[in-house]
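User: My advisor, Dr. K., asked me to get a structural model of this assembly before our group meeting. I'm new to this, so sorry if the format is off. These are the inputs:
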Amino acid sequence: MSEDLQCVDEAVAEFGRDASAVIPILQRLQQRYRYLPEAALRRVCELTEITPAAIAGVSTFYSQFRHKPVGRHIISICHGTACHVKGSELIQDALARDLKLGEGEDTDSNGVFTLERVACLGCCTLAPVIKIDDITYGHLTSQTVSRALHDFLELEKRGIVPERHDRTAAKGAGLAEIRIGVGSCCEAGGSQSVRRELEAEVKRLGAAAVIKPVGCVGMCHQTPLVQIITGGGEPVTYAKVRAEEAARIVRRHLKPGGIVRRIRAGVDTVLEHLLTDDTWEPVSRYALDVRDAPVCSFLGKQKRIASEWCGDLDPLDITEYAAHGGWTALKACLKAGQPEQIVEEVTRSGLRGRGGAGFPTGRKWAVVRAAPGSPKYLVCNGDEGDPGAFMDRMLLESFPYRVLEGIVISAYAMGIHEGFLYIRAEYPLALQRIRAALARMESDGLLGSSLLGSGFDLTLKIVEGAGAFVSGEETALLASIEGQRAMPKFRPPYPAESGLWGKPTAINNVETLAMVPWILRNGAGAFQEMGAGSSRGTKVFSLAGKVVRGGLIEVPMGISVRDIVNEIGGGTPDERGFKAVQIGGPSGGCLPASLGNTPVTYESLAAEGCIMGSGGLVVLDHSDCMVDLARYFMTFTQHESCGKCTPCRVGTKRMLEILERLCEGRGVKGDIERLEEFARTTAGGSLCGLGKTAANPVLSTIRHFRDEYQAHLEGRCPALKCRKLVAYTITEDCIGCTKCAQICPVEAITPAPYRKHEIQQDKCTKCDSCRQVCPSNAVVLGSPGVSVDKEVG
Amino acid sequence: MPQLTINGRSVTVENGVTVLEAARGLGITLPTLCHLPGKPAFTSCMICVVKNEVTGRLIPSCSAPVMEGMVITTDSDEVRQERKKILDLLLSEHSGDCEAPCTTTCPARMDIPLMIRQIAGGQLKEAYETVTDRIALPAVLGRICPAPCEKACRRGHHDAPVSICLLKRFAADEALKVDADVPPSPEGLRRTSRAASAPDKRIAIIGAGPAGLAAAFYLARSGYACTVLDEHEAPGGQLRYRVARDKLPMDVLDREIDVIRKLGVLFQMNTRIEPGAGIQRLKANYDAIVLTPGRTHGDSWHLWPVESDGRGVKVETGTFRTSDPMIFAGGEVVHAGQMSVRAVAHGKSIACAIDQWLGGRPVVGLEKSFESRLGQLKEGEIGEMMKDADPGTRVEPEGEHGAGYSTDKAVQESRRCLQCDCRKAKHCKLRDLSVEYGASQKVFTGSSRTKFVKTVSPQVIFEPGKCIKCGICVRLSGLAFLGRGYETVVGVPFGDSLKSALGSAAADCVRNCPTGALAWKADA
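Assistant: The format is fine. Below is the predicted structure of the whole assembly, which you can bring to the meeting.
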């Protein structure tokens, strides 16, 4: 099959012939061919300075790139932390079964679907999540996932493709506003179809209302969210709105001909109806004042700085942003003409890098400002790779102008005229919004030459990540921009002194930059007022896992973990409460419930073997196995290791082998001590933060849950999670209805009407379907601690 | 110009100098594997770690720039332990044999693949030297040895093992044909140059069987005056008086013994040494005694004036020294029912131990190097190994029963060898460091092994299983890193040829590769 190679020539013409253009060129090729044909790669080498070794090295390093043709559609199965604890492996198995995939195969025999595992899609509150091409499906179970496949094929047949957003109509006085959330979680929840119905109904009524898409309000557990705001009144929020309810909502608030009436009385019942529909929280949680309680508790203890006005603004409406104080800080900075003072103000505020390391931002800016060398560069690190974290995604999608304002201010403060926004490819909506925002800023004179007539020039470019967690590490990120494998370098020298192409480079996280305009508008003192110790200001967290109200929250530093989980998050569905909270992703640790009063500050968390990290908080309950969790994180880290340095490349592999042994009941005496020893070598000898912190999840779970490790050595999984250590059995409560036999995907149960059914253990894949479907709770899960090979009686 | 302290010594250096360079300035050489002198550091292997006492952190000295006030320790137990752990990790992903299984199975540890390569290349003199480096009486053994090496030969996984025994016989017979001189041993060369004026040391060897003959062979080559005493009429022990004549013609044995005589060894036949007074007399007149009387007198080993147990005379492992520091014992008197090749191996070890003792050096026996072992072959791996070998079936010698190889046949058979030893076993930095730091390949038992792969070009052998991902060849040539993390392999982009990828940098790559991953085909 001969490939049309015209695309190669076009890509080279667009991105240039320099070696540093390799990643964008490869991305363009893959967009066109859906994989990277060898002929196309060879042609790239012919036309550019990129060598075969470089293109081979780069294209095989990043997860995004494929070297084999794929099916018509790609199913990305998310295995982020929240999805993992909610059973993503069961989803994976179910899909592999549905597509009749053999061992090692990823595409069905008809070439329709290709399965791929992804580390995180950033829709954690809808876990477990899959994405088929551009459509996201959430809250799946091994039973419902087939329905998602059929639903997708239906949409394909009907030619319906997900819309991309355009500008809304201008807001006029006297018009009611119907706001609909348009973050990724909202879309995944079906907000687009809701929006279509809203628009249709408003048009049909001829009502005086405008539909306004708004950024993320953070209540991701309630998506899709619709908010009605009528002339000067309080917003009324509807949660988990379904498309067929949209028309009813419009009619409740809007009368034909434009008279707006608010029906307060009816709202309670409507909302209660909506909230209890299809949710798994106990109704009793929403006792009094149903309309406000959950929202108030969720929003109450929060303090919005980086995520200020989220939920109020159309992400791409630049005028609206300006009307809410946007650009005030930037204009003041440009007018004052004292860049050093900006650096001082940021330093005084105590702002620390929100990407995870917590380095004092002002100090970094001062180093870059003073460093000899020119030109200087800045990079906004939007590579948010922690599985279970989606804060930066929310900020980029919902508040792009705020992030960009922070970037422009930082550039001015440090004397930088060229900047890069490094955004991971797994965030297509964020990329789209930032692109649109940049274009708008350029046309409004907020970017380019002589911003707002100040004489200060700045151009910003977007660089798309290509799928490598390690490229979130500063020096690896720079290598990626330079068109190389994302392998870190030893520091010193630090990027602030010698970074991109050897020049001083300031790298800051999205959230850090989003704080800057607020700090400059309100003063360093105001920021300092919040927080504790040397952790001032606020932090955005993504709360997910076994929690009632998951979503994005922004809280002052110093709040306790317990308050976050119980007050803001509404506690766990399981009455026993939370077992632990995983903080800091694969570099972080598990904080047991017994230490729930630990305040969220850099120091307190470090003292307990955790790290602040980028802000992922995954709540775990008693059905979560801590050894499995350690194994999960080590799997992730080991897969994402760049492979350059010995302690990480080999050390993580060896630790993973031990953890896998433990989870499969093949643990050997001394394994726990071995883990601790290997952890020391990996942590002490690794080149970069990935390797240095790879052992944190293991060490913190051993520290706080050593008994679980001990149990696994004895072949038991107390949480009943590790599939090789548990067994499903049917009790005497069985009524012989044969439902389990019918649903079993591997025919491990023979139908026996009116008689007690039996599960054949050697066939059972522990998919949990029989337990879910049994009407008499006769299927029980146990971990008898028998060795893997023996039968369970 | 920052100033720092290394191991308590102060030094001032230029700005930008690394800790590695600063140490070198003080005459301290730190171990490296991934470092290319003169090029920027890659910071991959981490073997060069040192400790910065100010921060308490371990840092890679190749990359860390010197900072004012640094206090560096390069040689503490902690640092050495860290380096050992790094080596343990590297060895756990190292798929390859330092020495081929035939060599490690051979009781005398003869370098079989080297001998075979030399036969294939027509270098018969060199082949004979390789053989006699470890094996005395090779023409004899080439006719009677049960060849445990062939049972371990990997070629046997594919069709039939290489005919190692017959090839050795060929090398030995060719040498006998031309009356080849046996060169002095490396130890002998050292002795001659070192102690030209020292009085000759005299060694008495009791028993002219394979063990005693071998001891005499190696001691004489090391420059010692040896006298072999035996109660029989002619030397040979079991070889003359037990082995069937049709298996081992007497003239072959006689000619091999003549080789030993030519080295200056004296034979006193018809001489029986009494276990009590006889030994005392020998001790008075000689500097060391080799006790290799065999088992001709039944269970009489306990009569010798050294410690023994129910099985034989007790000796120290490796040195074969008995409870009497002057007496070294080997052969059947130590352990009954051995193959002759093992007795010969004892003789070599004894010669080595005596040479160490009389030379005032620590008596440790033959040096044991570090061995990386591939172990059991996995599926597909024999195919990889076959890439370097002739696919033909095993060659049988022509002529009457019991004949050896002709030159043509020998060369043809030698080409069947898979050459599964490492071409760089004697120049491997990883191996040398593993010896120095006492690293072990057994720390991570139960772990997976990377697949053995072999890529062959006209001049270069590339075995990515031995690669430590140091990136030297990637930095120097058109080879590429493929994949990420643990699964990273160094490979040729687009499946092109190894030769084209290496290009003109082939010699630099082979020379700088710190392991046997990249080696010349022709390397010994």
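One thing worth pointing out at the meeting: Chain B has four domains: 3-75, 101-181+374-414, 186-350, 439-520.

User: Perfect, thanks a lot.
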